[in-house]
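Let's practice the habit of predicting before peeking. Look at the sequence and jot down your guess about where helices and strands might fall. Then scroll down.
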Amino acid sequence: MSKGSIYGERSQRVRECFLGAGGADRVLVVPVDLAKTEHVAALCRGSGEYLCRPFAVHNTPAGLDLLLERVRKACSRHGIRQGDVLVGGEDPCQYAFNFIHALRLAGHPFVRVNAREAATLRNNHRATSDALALDGIAQALVQQRGWETETQDGLYSTLKLAGRSRRALVRQQTAFKNRIHRSVEVLFPCFLREERSGISPFGPASLDLMRGDFSCVRIARMRQDTLARRLRRHRVPHAEQAAAKLKALAAGTLPPTPEAVPYEMRSLTARVRMLETLQQMAAAELEEMARCLAQTPGFVLTSIPGMGVTLAAHITAEYGSPDRWASADRMASYAGIVPRQKQTGGPGRQAVVGSLPRNANRVLKDYLIQAANHVGTTGSHRLRDHYERVMDRGGRERLGTAKMLVRILRVMVTTESVYLPPGLLRPGNATVGDLVAHYREIAAAMAVKWRAFDLAGIDPEHNRMLQWRNTIDDMARYATQH
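Done guessing? Here is the structure:
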């Protein structure tokens, strides 16, 4: 929307549909209340007049054909063009992705509306039913309050699905680690405290020891050279000293009740195996995220000191395609890192700054705050300088750095430019040779961050990171020739 419009929350795509049709009466609005097996749909004009009663649409090819046929007949009967059909519903879940994709193939873009807003717009607030929910969706579409969804089979959608899946898996890992803690505190207290045991908790060596016959009695009886060999197998530094420290801890620990040992060992073994499975699944999701990120301009975010592939992929996934990115202010507001403000009593009164909003993308906010903490404590660059200045004056350094990070990453991704110091950003301050030398340093630092991921098999035409490296080589050849 243009900045001067009073309808800042309305979709440009939806508004164009109403304007292009030549009036609200010339638009066919199709609200759909999505469900797993049977959707509920209706037909109405853009002016709000219902053309039929709500009808059931199965989440099958036959149901899709029925909906398309009803739409076609309504357009023919009322003289509405097929291109002036607006299909919409609440934020779709996975079970509706294929249905929406088929709608797009049929030439009807799907518009999503906010569920909370649709609930406030419906005519009846005392009861709840599919028909009333459908009425709220229709009201939102008629008032042009909707946003076209991204294609669910697109690169950014895959990136977001993998990111949300990985986040859920990480949370499940935390839950299983808490359960493992309970069993370990019975079988071998303080084993998961690195300063006491000498090995990293939940590392490969720790998980190997906890699998099977595990207790402080078992570790105390184990030969030190055997224990050191098992630790060395998992690349524990100074395995001999770690083995001696672990045996000393086991010898000085009170043994568990013999009757409780068999159950706790079986329970611990099952939980350790489940944790390892979750770790493998999370690693697979992260691998897919890295492959998707390399094919988007979001790969340039890994050029920021302290910003790894994981954070860059999650942030890119939550924001989606850069073609849809709004201003930096709206991007920050969407992430919930801009506090609410209230100003009243005339233009001369100062605005009162409130708390951070709750109705925001809390997942994105979490990753932006993490990224701000990492970039604000790593290396020497302008983001870290900003982080330290805010901290010195007693401000909220992570929140302030996150706001600045949003402004920087928006420019970086939309222009596909890597993170450069201010001196190289000013025109005429650096030669081509200086830029090439700095680009090579950045490429080397990025290669370290990406070395754990397998990017083989990606089409070179789609590998944006490979194309960027080839551009650096072309610049180097140009600098050598001139």
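How did you do? The chain has three domains: 12-148, 160-286, 294-342+352-481.
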